[in-house]
Amino acid sequence: MNVSLITKKIKTAYEVSTNAELAIKLGVSVSAIEAWSRRKEIPQKYIFQCTAETGVSIEWLLDEDKPTFNISGGSKNISQVNGGTINQGSEKEEELELFEEFKKIENLAKMTNKMDFLEKELKTIKEKLIEYL
N or C, which end of the chain has less CB nearby within 10 Å? Predict the structure, then answer.
């Protein structure tokens, strides 16, 4: 397991750049994140938490061959965390933009499913309360 690369991908998924920012997102201490490198292992619960909260796939998170992209605000390119550069206007940039749009739609769908689930749960609770009263 390449802990350094996976940690970078988790930061990318959460759109943060420091261990302190990531610690806040995951609800852990900075020293806990730093310990991952020493132990050469990331606890699975944080990998699952990242996929659940950000919508990234476990496959992407754990696969060292899947590129990770960062779009830098003022520059004219998109850089990969694990190497290479994509020039603005290139076919790869268009693919990345489509991927980002798909990710947004996928996240909206997940949120909708969660809202539907919560709505059903509330209905069930209301029905049980009415029966109880």
Answer: C
Q: What is the pLDDT of residues 77-89, one digit of tens each?
A: 444 444 444 444 5
Give the span between the Cα atoms of 86 and 94, in whole angstroms.
10
Cβ neighbors of 93 (< 8 A, separation 6 or more) are 78, 86, 87
Residue matched to tokens 């969660």: 114
Q: Would the pTM of this model clear 0.70, i.e. be above it?
A: no
DSSP H/E element including 77? strand 77-80
- Token duo for residue 35: 């310990």
Residues 6+ apart with CB under 8 A from 18: 11
Determine the Cα–Cα distance for residues 50 and 66; give it in Å rounded to an integer. 17
Is the model's pLDDT at 64 over the cut of 50? yes
